[in-house]
Amino acid sequence: MIFTAKMGLDHDNAVGLMRDMHRKLVYLDTGKAPVPEGALQACSEYCGLPFEVLCAGIEEAMTRLKQSEAVT
């Protein structure tokens, strides 16, 4: 899991970090690769957050990312 391997967080710290900053996980499906359902489910279970898959082309994905940067 990226939280432990790359960020050095234990499970409790990773869950606390994610729940403090997020309500859910969102995967933007651009149609360029298969949706990694297994990885999304594993991350969702690890963090205790639901996940949602939104269909979005590359241009729409970039627009959504820019909008989310403006909000945060």
Commentary on this structure:
Helix 3 links the parallel strand 1 and strand 2 (51-55). The model has no long low-confidence stretch (mean pLDDT 84). This protein has 72 residues and is of the alpha+beta class. The protein is 56% helix and 14% strand. It has helices spanning 2-5, 11-21, 37-47, 58-71; strands spanning 25-29, 51-55. The protein has a domain at 24-72. The protein has four helices and two strands, in the order H-H-E-H-E-H.
Q: How is the topology of this model organized?
A:
Elements: H1 2-5, H2 11-21, E1 25-29, H3 37-47, E2 51-55, H4 58-71
> Ranges with pLDDT <50 over ≥5 residues?
none
How many DSSP helices?
Answer: 4
Number of strands: 2
Question: The biggest beta sheet, please?
Answer: 2 strands, parallel
Order of the strands making up the biggest sheet: 1-2
Portion in helices: 55-70%
Supply Rg.
Answer: 13 Å
Shape: globular
Strand content is 5-15%
Distance between the termini: 25 Å
Structural class: alpha+beta
Give the oligomer, counting copies of the same chain as homo and different chains as hetero.
single chain
Instruction: Write the H/E string, N to C.
Output: HHEHEH
Mean pLDDT: 84
Write a concise synopsis of the structure shown.
With 72 residues, this protein is α+β, with helices and mostly antiparallel strands. Helices cover 56% and strands 14% of the residues.
List keywords for this structure.
single chain; 72 residues; alpha+beta; two-stranded parallel ribbon; 4 helices; 2 strands; globular
